[in-house]
Design a protein that fits this description.
Layout lengths: L6 E3 L8 E6 L5 E8 L2 E4 L2
Antiparallel strand pairs: 1-2, 2-3, 3-4
Amino acid sequence: MSVKSPGIAINNGRVGQQIQVKNKSSKRVITARVVNSRLVEVVM
């Protein structure tokens, strides 16, 4: 399954690191792994 949603990084991180990301529409903060400078994947 793939879901895309715009968000704002709360922390800086390198590829492979986990950071906090705030969803732009829901304002919910999630933990995600940095894939590249413009993409993260949700950690479950």
